[in-house]
Write a structure and sequence with these properties.
By secondary structure, the protein is an all-alpha fold. The protein has 9 helices and no strands.
Length: 164
């Protein structure tokens, strides 16, 4: 592999896993492409790059992955953070003056990240009621799925690396 992908870099996968990762180079490449597609899409729709980075940092923190959260905070800084977005990226609840749309998004991100089994059709309806279009609900679902997948893969590789 010529350059490490984010999952490989953040997992700290050393020589003990080099062979395994080399055999899975295509998966790492596809994961990196998914990262770019959901975090930095050319057409972000109704969920801006800055919101995506803040939400990803929040999910990474909820998954107790400080390195991944820092990666997303760096994307947030590059995208033009605001104090409010930085605060909720770091786990704070939405400020009192946060609009209903962003409140619904944060609630949904937290629910799916922390208690995915508790998610119902009503939660999707709440996003629509808060003003998210169907394409933006799909975009949000892609972001949530990817960041949580990424955090779990990194955690798994770290565990494997510790016993390799």
């Amino acid at each position: 592999m010529s350059s490490p992908h984010l999952i490989e870099t953040l997992s700290g996968a050393g020589s003990g896993l080099a062979g395994v990762l080399a055999e899975r180079a295509e998966i790492l490449g596809l994961s990196q492409a998914a990262h770019d597609a959901v975090l930095l899409p050319l057409a972000p729709g109704g969920i801006s790059h800055v919101e995506r980075a803040a939400l990803a940092a929040r999910m990474a923190s909820a998954n107790a992955d400080a390195a991944l959260a820092e990666h997303y905070r760096e994307l947030l800084r590059q995208a033009g953070e605001s104090p409010a977005l930085l605060a909720f990226a770091e786990g704070a609840g939405p400020a009192a003056d946060t609009d209903a749309r962003l409140r619904a998004i944060i609630r949904h991100v937290d629910l799916v990240t922390l208690s995915p089994r508790d998610t119902t059709k009503a939660d999707i309806a709440a996003l629509a009621a808060a003003g998210l279009s169907e394409p933006d609900i799909v975009r949000l679902a892609e972001l949530i799925a990817f960041v949580n997948y990424q955090a779990r893969v990194i955690a798994g590789l770290r565990l494997l690396g510790a016993i390799a």
